[in-house]
């Protein structure tokens, strides 16, 4: 006993230590609350960050569990209000995703707690709505959806956040009133419309021709659609059931509007579900239902039995959520307490004595039933076996997680491989297409060269035939001249023959006369003397001898002339025969030449038309290929500028004029085909370029202007094809009208002119001075604003007291900090601009640099003006708030405007800066300072507004039931009036935003419809 007592005095008692720890834990509620808020803040910051990746499920689950732990969303909003959601679109997008999960799966009080921030969410949605693309537009649509979801659940508290209800609960939600069911259906239509808008917005922002669902950026945009799919499936199911119920109570004509709206939403939802089910990302996370081929027929009551509720299935995860959140319990147990094992028993025996047979209180020993060593061994082995089972289970879970991760990685790699394979196939297809197009162009070139060579050969043959014709013509002329000479000789010989015959007749007459005279002489001889007779007779004989000699001579001459005449007649006959034969040969040759020339001319015309038609067909293919590219999904990523589009339109218009001139020249003589072929080829390429560049430009402009530009481009392509078809036929070529195509090109050019960035219309020498003036004016405006704020602060301290003075001081102090941050930003921007000019970018002075980079300079001027204007408006709003005449909301809006304006100034300043510039780093730090100061102004304004509103409590204790009822009715009337006015103001704000967006294009280069857009 002494030994036992001494042992008990030496060993400290462990029980008080454990109790003290537990007591300390029970009194540490404040520490537990701080740990909870800290853990929640860490999870929220990890879930909502600026990285363009999907929100991790474990961080979102921690936020959801946090709302159930505190039965609300106070901690969540406390952490979210510290985030700069208005300055980073990705951050705002991920906030919307997490907030959507909280609204669906969080504690029911999340919706009530979040309604307090409805106005801030509305402002943020309108602010992001100014951006026409990217995450900004998506954030605006998502925020509208979340606001609509909160309003729906507030109006219909029977609906849980995840929208899971039975048919009986759905009937109870309408309270058996057809009016309630009618209104509930309208609200569900509005709710589903917001869901579909987000669906369409996400899909339209993605390049669906690529495997975007396996990329981190694509998953960041697609992840929130899981919540949308879950909501949409329930809304569609409940809408179908409510419409059948309404058709059983109301006439069909009354519900025509409901049916039309349902038909429209059914088509959209069916298409979106189908497109989503084909994405690799959703296949691993969710099983999307498919809607029926045709919508339900609400006019047939029995069709309700054919309706099948769409069920969204989420596959079970490899590891349970609890495996990621192990509750640490070691702090609740004292580590000094030995475990209850065999070693613990031995220590107990060493301290307090053994429990052997010598122990008088050991009843087992007394009964002879002492516990066997084998039993202890069995218990020990059982305990070890249980520990091994637990370890094996943890290993199994861990291996399951690893397998799931590896399987996911394999799926990602397979998807990436599929995408790369697709891209490779697409590249090969494009390569084959380009190779085929190159071969076609080569063939066209070879055919054109062959035709040119054929035309050259034909022209050479024509020239040779022309030379032969000239020689034959000269020979024919010689023959004709020779024939004329022979005719003249023949006439001369004929004349001579006539003279000879006259001389012969004269000789005959002389002979006859001499004979008569001789006879007379003989008659008179008898009467005369013989002397006289002899004398006369001698004279007559002598005269007769002379006459005979003369006659002989004349006969000789006459015979010579006859021989000459015969020779000439023979020669003339021969010459005539030779001339006739030569003339016939020459005529045959001329006829043959003319027929050959006609054949060659016909062949030449055919070749000309063949080459022209081939060129026209190729031109039509080029224009049609350009039109086909507009439907190619890969073309969506192509972009172009309005300046380039306008320049291409002008070149195309000039080419159309050349085409018309070449057409007129070809129609007039049908010879100048080469000029027309060249004009057609150039025309096709230029018009195709206009079509492609016009479509690429439409990807960079707002939707309305993009649609108008796309329609004009398509109309231009159609007119070009029509003109080319008219030029193919000989009958319609002369009547082919280029005016309609010229009108279409003018329309495209006019739209491009509207989209061109309109500068400040300054002379180059004035831009540098204007930059300095605007920067100086901005600095002066900021200084003046800071001085006015200081003056207002002093005035407020002298006049105001209590909470009002505290609120005014806090607001004006935050405004002063913002002015100081803006001043630092402006100075940093000046230093950075000076570095940009001095870095040797091709200008000798600042003015020349500003003039050379006029568009960047104009953006810088616009940003400076916006900063100065925002500072002035902030001071005016703060002055009104301090005087009690303004609204806190105006001050917050001005703060957001300043943040946007300074962001514009930063972007305009650093666009040409070097990445490693120290002044660029200072400018970025100054920008962060402005963002923090803006957040400070918003926070102080909200805090001041809450403080003032808390002091204005409503006291209805002195009012009677009738007065309360009266004021309740007045309040309802006022609420209706305010809602109507709110709707009108929202519409007015939308129009103002639209007009501001158009006018902002003057400085930003977006284009518009008024003066700023041409």
UniProtKB/TrEMBL annotation:
It comes from the Eukaryota. Residues 1-24 are annotated as: Disordered. Residues 32-160 form the ENTH domain. Residues 1-12 have a biased composition (Polar residues). Residues 759-1000 form the I/LWEQ domain. InterPro entries: ANTH_dom, ENTH, ENTH_VHS, HIP1_clath-bd, I/LWEQ_dom_sf, ILWEQ_dom, Sla2_fam. One of its GO terms (cellular component) is cytoplasmic vesicle membrane. PANTHER family: HUNTINGTIN INTERACTING PROTEIN 1, HUNTINGTIN-INTERACTING PROTEIN 1. Plays a role in clathrin-mediated endocytosis and trafficking. Involved in regulating AMPA receptor trafficking in the central nervous system in an NMDA-dependent manner. Regulates presynaptic nerve terminal activity. Enhances androgen receptor (AR)-mediated transcription. May act as a proapoptotic protein that induces cell death by acting through the intrinsic apoptosis pathway. Binds 3-phosphoinositides (via ENTH domain). May act through the ENTH domain to promote cell survival by stabilizing receptor tyrosine kinases following ligand-induced endocytosis. This is Huntingtin-interacting protein 1. It comes from Danio rerio (Zebrafish). The gene is hip1.
């Amino acid at each position: 006993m002494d030994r036992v007592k001494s042992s008990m005095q030496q060993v400290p008692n462990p029980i008080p230590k454990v109790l003290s720890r537990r007591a300390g834990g029970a009194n540490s509620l404040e520490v537990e609350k701080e740990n909870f808020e800290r853990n929640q803040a860490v999870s929220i910051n990890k879930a909502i960050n600026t990285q363009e990746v999907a929100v991790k499920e474990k961080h979102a689950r921690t936020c959801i569990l946090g709302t159930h732990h505190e039965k609300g969303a106070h901690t969540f909003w406390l952490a979210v209000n510290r985030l700069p959601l208005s300055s980073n679109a990705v951050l705002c997008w991920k906030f919307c995703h997490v907030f959507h999960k909280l609204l669906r799966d969080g504690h029911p009080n999340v919706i009530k707690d979040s309604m307090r921030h409805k106005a801030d969410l509305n402002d943020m949605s309108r602010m992001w709505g100014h951006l026409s693309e990217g995450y900004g537009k998506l954030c605006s649509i998502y925020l509208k959806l979340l606001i609509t979801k909160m309003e729906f659940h507030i109006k219909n508290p029977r609906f849980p956040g995840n929208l899971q209800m039975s048919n009986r609960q759905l009937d109870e939600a309408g309270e058996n009133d057809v009016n309630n069911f009618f209104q509930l259906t309208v609200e569900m239509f509005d709710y589903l419309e917001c869901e579909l808008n987000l669906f369409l917005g996400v899909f339209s922002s993605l390049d669906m021709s690529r495997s975007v669902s396996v990329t981190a950026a694509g998953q960041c945009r697609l992840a929130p659609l899981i919540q949308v799919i879950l909501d949409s499936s329930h809304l569609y199911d409940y809408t179908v059931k409510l419409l059948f119920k309404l058709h059983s109570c109301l006439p069909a004509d009354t519900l025509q509007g409901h049916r039309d709206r349902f038909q429209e939403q059914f088509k959209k939802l069916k298409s979106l579900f189908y497109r989503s089910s084909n994405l690799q990302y959703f296949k691993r996370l969710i099983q999307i239902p498919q809607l029926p081929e045709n919508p339900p027929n609400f006019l047939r009551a029995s069709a309700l039995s054919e309706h099948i509720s769409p069920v969204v299935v989420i596959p079970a995860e490899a590891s349970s959520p609890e495996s990621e959140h192990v509750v640490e319990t070691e702090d609740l147990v004292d580590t000094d307490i030995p475990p209850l094992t065999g070693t613990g028993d031995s220590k107990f025996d060493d301290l307090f004595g053994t429990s052997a047979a010598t122990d008088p209180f050991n009843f087992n020993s007394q009964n002879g039933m002492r516990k066997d060593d084998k039993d202890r061994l069995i218990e020990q082995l059982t305990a070890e076996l249980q520990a091994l089972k637990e370890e094996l289970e943890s290993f199994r879970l861990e291996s399951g997680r690893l397998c799931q991760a590896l399987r996911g990685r394999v799926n990602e790699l397979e998807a990436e491989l599929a995408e790369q394979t697709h891209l490779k196939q697409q590249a090969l297809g494009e390569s084959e297409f380009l190779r085929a197009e190159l071969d076609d162009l080569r063939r066209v070139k070879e055919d054109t060269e062959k035709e040119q060579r054929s035309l050259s050969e034909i022209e050479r043959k024509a020239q040779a035939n022309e030379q032969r014709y000239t020689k034959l013509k000269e020979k024919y002329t010689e023959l004709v001249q020779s024939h004329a000479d022979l005719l003249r000789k023949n006439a001369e010989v004929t004349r001579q023959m006539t003279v000879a015959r006259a001389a012969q007749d004269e000789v005959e007459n002389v002979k006859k006369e001499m004979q008569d005279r001789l006879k007379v002489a003989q008659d008179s001889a008898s009467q005369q003397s013989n002397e006289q007779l002899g004398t006369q007779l001698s004279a007559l004989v002598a005269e007769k001898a002379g006459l005979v000699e003369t006659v002989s001579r004349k006969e000789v001459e006459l015979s010579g002339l006859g021989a000459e005449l015969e020779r000439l007649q023979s020669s003339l006959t021969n010459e005539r025969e030779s001339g006739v034969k030569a003339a016939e040969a020459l005529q045959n040759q001329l006829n043959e030449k003319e027929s050959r020339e006609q054949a060659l001319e016909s062949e030449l015309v055919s070749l000309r038309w063949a080459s022209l038609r081939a060129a026209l067909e190729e031109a039509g293919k080029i224009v049609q290929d350009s039109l086909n590219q507009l439907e190619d999904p890969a073309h969506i990523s192509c972009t172009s500028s309005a300046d380039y589009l306008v320049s291409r339109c002008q070149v195309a218009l000039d080419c159309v004029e050349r085409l018309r001139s070449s057409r007129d020249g070809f129609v007039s003589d049908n010879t100048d085909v080469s000029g027309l072929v060249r004009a057609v080829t150039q025309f096709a390429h230029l018009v195709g370029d206009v079509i492609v560049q016009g479509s690429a430009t439409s990807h960079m402009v707002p939707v309305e202007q993009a649609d108008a530009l796309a329609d004009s481009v398509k109309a231009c392509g159609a007119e070009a094809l029509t003109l080319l078809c008219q030029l193919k036929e000989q009958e319609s070529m002369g009547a082919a009208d280029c005016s309609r195509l010229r009108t279409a090109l003018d329309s495209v050019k006019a739209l491009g002119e509207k989209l061109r960035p309109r500068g400040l219309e300054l002379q180059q020498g004035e831009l540098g001075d204007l930059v300095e003036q605007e920067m100086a004016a901005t600095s002066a405006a900021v200084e003046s604003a800071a001085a006015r704020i200081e003056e207002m602060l002093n005035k407020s301290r002298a006049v105001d007291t209590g909470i009002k003075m505290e609120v005014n001081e806090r607001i004006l102090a935050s405004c002063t900090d913002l002015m100081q941050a803006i001043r630092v930003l402006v100075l940093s921007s000046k230093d950075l601009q000076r570095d940009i000019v001095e870095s040797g970018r091709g200008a000798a002075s600042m003015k020349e640099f500003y003039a050379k980079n006029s568009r960047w300079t104009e953006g810088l001027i616009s940003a400076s003006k916006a900063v100065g204007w925002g500072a002035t408006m902030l001071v005016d709003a703060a002055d009104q708030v301090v005087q009690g005449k303004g609204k806190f909301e105006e001050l917050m809006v001005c703060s957001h405007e300043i943040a946007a304006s300074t962001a514009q100034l930063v972007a305009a300043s650093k666009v040409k800066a070097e990445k490693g510039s120290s002044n660029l780093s200072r400018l970025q730090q100054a920008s962060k300072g402005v963002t923090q100061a803006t957040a400070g102004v918003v926070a102080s304004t909200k805090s001041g507004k809450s403080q003032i509103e808390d002091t204005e409590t409503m006291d209805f204790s002195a009012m009677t039931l009738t007065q309360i009822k009266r004021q309740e009715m007045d309040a309802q009337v006022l609420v209706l009036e305010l809602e109507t006015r709110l709707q009108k103001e929202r519409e007015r704000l939308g129009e103002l935003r639209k007009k501001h967006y158009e006018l902002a294009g003057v400085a930003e280069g977006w284009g518009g419809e008024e003066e700023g857009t041409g």
